[in-house]
Amino acid sequence: MSALGDVVREAAARHGDTPLYVTHEGEPFTYAALDRLSDAVAAGLTERGVGVGDVVGVLLPSAPSYAVVYAATAKIGAIAAGVNDRLSAPERARCLAVARPRVVVAPKALVPELEIEGGCLAGVEEVVALDMDSSCENMLDQLRGTVALPQLDSDPERPVAIVFTSGTTGEPKGAVFADRQLDAISEVDGGRAWGAGGRGLAPTSFAHVGYMTKLPQALRSGGTTYLMKRWSATEALELAARNRVTTLGGIPTMMALMLRHESFSSTDLSSVRTVVLGGGPSTPALIREIRERLGVPVLVRYTCTEAGVGTGTDPDGPPQDAEETVGRARPGVEVTVRDEADRQLAPGQVGQVCLRSAAVMSGYWCNEEATAAALTADGAVRTGDVGFVDEMGRLRLTGRSKEMYVRGGYNVYPLEVENALADHPQVAHVAIAPRPDPVMGEIGVAVVVPLDQDEAPSLESLREHARRKLASYKLPEDLVVLRELPRTAMEKTDRRALSELVGRRDRQP
What are the domain boundaries of the chain? Predict the structure, then answer.
């Protein structure tokens, strides 16, 4: 088993001057630079008293400097707590309050905000402010040190990363991952193989579980990732074409926005060999459109922050696998569906989806109560998703247990309704949000982004379109038309914002 720090060193030896990242300004950052600079920053952290088990808050944008600080903490046995810089100020403060870092590394522009927040910095000995307008080499000058790095004992259970849940529906929780989990994820994703290569874009924040836990295998691959200051369909298409990317990945919303972009048809994406979707539900209509317009396999991946890995589809599988399911358990993963008493249900029965593997988090940082609620007695993660395993062993999701609403005594899952409406000829994006109703208890409201803002679908046309797939009680009973759906910092549909929007409309005279 290789610790993250060891993988950084080996990747530098193997891949050297190959660009690991290319910044949004077009500057290459090599594998060798990551190793060299992370050694210097690790020495600087050591000189500040940071050591094994200490937390370093990493409040940086998705850039080489983030990777350097993360690798540096791993080299001295400290723990990197990544905080998405796109969160709001109160959300960032809550994440730091949970992490209880000894040192925080943040952009200079955010430091006054952190000092004002005060309470989130309890116990912090230093906030290191980086000038994000300078090169990676220069901005890290004040973090560099010269002392020899400590020799770490081999400990697969030593925590490496704290990955925060989104926090959009409550207080954030920090999932803890050790070298053991990162190694297990590397085995599932690439068999710990070296040199697969490839070129891709960075679709999500480096603070996301997809980066924090998959970095070791990404380093092994020797590929190059092109960074954006902030994701946009325009820039993603331009970068993909100019740099001949081989893989497009991200959450379904991103691919949908790229497909709808005015320049998509004129963009040369012939270098793309695979599209990988995860981090949110994909509609059958989206999967079919990607296949038709790009002519490449679409892989669907499903997991949750706490589980690390979960299920997936195969590039050679039948179209229905990716269109209608999230695939089968990936190697070493056990998928079960359970009732409220944690009893395992038979195939075809609907219940809560649970995932168990060697990649499951160690627990939530400093939160034993939440850890106990998230994990079953046999160590499986309760994902909060509802679904069933079909007769072919594929997992089919029907919704989120917390997003379910009850109309007239019947349970309705928004995801199921959204899938039925997604291929309406006038719909670009659709989400379902519940609204309180004095008679039915709750009703569903379709929040729609039309393909043409001048030709929005009517409520009746939406209901008629979905009627052949859904029972009548699941059909939407009101319609809201928007130019775009509200999104979280992770580019997912913001369910809380939708509920507030629907509620505000309901209160209007």
Answer: 4-14+27-188+204-218, 405-507
